[in-house]
Design brief:
10 helices; 228 residues; signal; two-stranded antiparallel ribbon; mainly alpha; two-stranded antiparallel sheet; 65% helix; 2 domains
């Protein structure tokens, strides 16, 4: 056993002497691989950080929203307002971190003026949010759980982590439109959905909560994109 240990030590020593830069190069390559994909240059990671910051807020708001028998427009407007205000507060801290952590942060800052196509960085609504809420009537709360199988049947694709912040918004847009088109099809094909009240309102609610739950930065949508 002792001979084996000595042999290994001598072999490693010989390797380091024969190629003194090899281990350093290897360490550098490992370090680069570990740090290349960050919130500074990955749209997916930046979006994930924003989304993680909103998870508890959206869950709490949704649980309160569904307590009455019907989710009326006034109640939905209030929760979207609250969500946008919380999102603006969370984004402010994230922007502060990015300024200190990312050497070239202009692209990140430019993207973080709007989130999910719904909320501005000041906590206000975009035209899309206004339009979604304007046409909303009501949804019956008791049938909201019926949406869960539909949502689970339409998983949101992952954005590749190597897509940059400047390019990522188009991929996010494609993914969310595909996801919500699937959700709309599930609503239309479900026998129980007519009991939920106004079907177009249910679709509008789905758009609002899916985009608020996964609020990609720097993206714009129109009602026509969703066929609403």
């Amino acid at each position: 056993m002792e001979v084996s240990k000595i042999t290994v030590i001598l072999a490693l020593t010989a390797l380091s002497l024969a190629a003194p830069n090899s281990l350093g190069t290897l360490n550098t390559e490992i370090s680069v691989r570990q740090t290349t994909i960050t919130e500074c240059n990955s749209y997916a990671m930046l979006t994930e950080r924003i989304s993680d910051a909103m998870v508890d807020t959206i869950s709490d708001i949704a649980s309160r929203l569904y307590k009455p028998k019907r989710v009326l427009k006034a109640a939905l407007v209030r929760v979207v307002e609250e969500s946008c205000q919380v999102l603006a507060t969370k984004a402010k801290q994230i922007k502060k971190d990015i300024r200190s952590e990312c050497a070239n942060n202009e692209i990140n800052m430019a993207a973080m003026h709007v989130f999910g196509g719904l909320c501005t960085d000041k906590g206000g609504f975009t035209p899309l949010a206004d339009d979604l809420l304007a046409g909303y009537k009501y949804v019956v709360s008791a049938c909201i759980p019926s949406m869960h199988p539909i949502l689970h049947g339409c998983p949101i694709e992952e954005i590749p982590e190597d897509i940059g912040v400047a390019e990522g918004h188009s991929e996010y847009r494609r993914i969310m439109l595909k996801h919500l088109k699937c959700v709309f099809t599930g609503i239309d094909d479900s026998d129980g959905m007519p009991l939920c009240g106004d079907t177009p309102s249910l679709k509008r609610m789905a758009v609002l909560f899916e985009l608020l739950t996964y609020p990609g930065p720097g993206v714009a949508f129109t009602m026509a994109n969703f066929g609403l």
